Amino acid sequence: METDKLIAMLAREAEPVAPGRVRQRYGAALALGVAGASVLMVAFLGVRRDLAEAARESMFWVKLALPLALLAVSIVSAVRLARPGVRLGYAVEAAMVPVGAIWTLAGAVLLAAGPGERLPLLLGVTWMSCPFSIALLSSPAFVAAFWAMRGMAPTRPVVAGAFSGLLAGSLGAAVYCLHCPEMAAPFLGTWYLLGIALPTLAGAAAGPRLLRW
Amino acid sequence: MAAGYALGQNSALARVMPPGCNRGGEAREYQGSRKRLSAREDHLKELLIRGLAGEGPAYAAFLKELSAFLRAFLRGRLARVPDEVEDLVQETLLAVHNQRHTYDPARPLTAWVHAIARYKMIDFLRLRSGREAMNEPLGDEDELLAATDEEAREARRDIAALLERLPDRHRLPIVHVKIEGLSVAEAAKLTGMSESAVKVGIHRGLKTLAAFIRETEWKPTS
Q1: How far apart are alpha carbons B114 and B142 in whole angstroms?
Q2: Nearest one of A150, A130, A167, A153 to A32, comparing CA atoms
Q3: CA–CA distance, B77 with B188 (Å, rounded to integer)
Q4: Residue of B26, B27, B22, B41 lying closest to B145 (CA atoms)
Q5: Cα A146 from Cα A152, distance rounded (Å)
Q6: How many other C-beta atoms are found inside a 10 Å radius of the C-beta of residue A128?
Q7: Is the backbone of residue A114 left (phi > 0), alpha (psi -120 to 50) or beta?
Q8: Does residue B12 surpass a pLDDT of 50?
Q9: ∠ Cα B41 B43 B46 (to 5°)
Q10: Which residues 23-82 of chain B have a CB within 8 Å of chain A?
Q11: pLDDT per position as a tens digit, B72-126
Q12: pLDDT tens digits, chain A, 213 residues: what are they?
């Protein structure tokens, strides 16, 4: 087919494109991710019984702020990566801010604690299951974030995959906060971040295969 | 001397000057070419925005003018494989069309188109000749609208043949609406599909076409 014919074909009856399609798709992906994670959490883990009490402690909100900050960074970054020619900016640096904050807090808590208290602060009682539970809860958002990105035009598939995974992981961790009884900063700075890192790495690995266009 | 002095006074001009360019004539020429590029950017962007709003002729003009820029850009970069330039022009046009919803009118058109052309070109070079080809100069955004080339060679890959491979639910809507020029309603009546199925078929079909192109890409044709 000649190029002129191709152009005529593409232009004929071309559907108008409503502005905001990128945002709509990411909005839908987030809604699906939250709904999926909530269903999995209620079905397999259960909401923590003392949620109302815990919500009165400031540490509960610090704990929730960690994944929510990462979620915000990853949404902004994913929408940028979805559009060709838009620079990512300081996304990685921005993601390091909440991580650095929780590590600083964790360091302060560990320093203040007595030698015998440090290991329990780090391991809590759920360290073995925490990262995997977060990864499990993030799986619907992982599928949704890749679905959204596959409808876009990412020119950096590894990075776009990683931020899609970070979006899923931080969303899963935020929902997991409603189940998880752990409140110590050293625990959050280790096992929560590990749970978020799992889908992030999986996303980086899957990007080149799943995000071609 | 006088020209150099005048240039020093004009800081806006000095800023856009490339290093090593210090003669008045070249500076004026350079400034002239910046103006021309920005006029082209504005013109193409206006056509695309009207096209995205549903103005068919403006969209066709956008793709037509863009194809000439793409051809010159890719021909300059792919001097070693001139026969495949037109294929890549077509593939890039299809990508621009399929991903047109990712264009943000608040941002420069050149950066968007350049990123798409670059992505398709890197893919091509990677598949074709591995790592060695990655050293080819990819050029920067400014070069994209620098020159036009209206003279299309024949494409080696026949998109019409690839269209035949699409399943009927994609192929028939594309053939009736996009090639034969029927309206969506007429195509729906003819095929027994609903109007929305016709629209979805066109949309999905063109995406599948791009995937076919990737699959069959650059296999040496004897």
Answers
A1: 9
A2: A167
A3: 44
A4: B41
A5: 10
A6: 11
A7: beta
A8: no
A9: 105
A10: 51-54, 56-57, 59-60, 63-64, 67
A11: 999 988 888 888 899 999 999 999 999 999 999 999 999 999 999 999 998 888 8
A12: 899 999 999 999 888 998 889 999 999 999 999 999 999 999 999 999 899 888 899 999 999 999 999 999 999 999 999 999 999 999 999 999 999 999 999 999 999 998 899 999 999 999 999 999 999 999 999 999 999 999 999 999 999 999 999 999 999 999 999 999 999 999 999 999 999 999 999 999 999 999 999
Contacts of A94 (CB under 8 A, 6+ apart): A73
Q: Is B184 helix (H, G, I), strand (E, B) or coil?
A: helix
| Orientation of helix A58-81 relative to helix A130-150, angle to 10° | 30
| B160-206 confidence digits (pLDDT tens) | 889 999 999 999 999 999 999 899 999 999 999 999 999 999 999 99
Tokens of A40: 């999995």
Q: What pTM was computed for the model?
A: 0.86
Q: Which residues of B touch A14 (CB under 8 A)?
A: 51, 54, 56, 59, 97
Residue that is written with structure tokens 């050029």 in the block: B139
Chain A residues with CB-CB distance to B51 below 8 A = 11, 14
In this structure, what DSSP letter does residue A153 have? -
The closest of B80, B66, B58 to B148, measured between CA atoms, is: B66
Is B181 in Cβ contact with A12 (below 8 Å)?
Answer: yes
Residue-wise pLDDT tens digits, B116-155: 999 999 888 887 765 454 555 566 777 788 788 877 777 8
Closest CA to B110 of A86, A198, A193, A39: A86
Q: Which two tokens stand for residue A72?
A: 């915000």
B102 contacts A83? CB cut-off 8 A: yes
ipTM of the complex, rounded to two decimals: 0.90
Sign of the Cα pseudo-torsion (A9, B150, B102, B157, in order): positive
Q: Which chain B residues are closer than 8 Å to A213 by Cβ? A: 95, 98-99, 210
Query: 10 Å Cβ neighbour count for A16?
Result: 11
Radius of gyration over every alpha carbon of chain A, rounded to an integer in angstroms: 20
Contacts of B102 in chain A (CB under 8 A): 22, 82-84, 152-153
What gap in Å lies between CA B25 and CA B220, rounded to an integer? 48
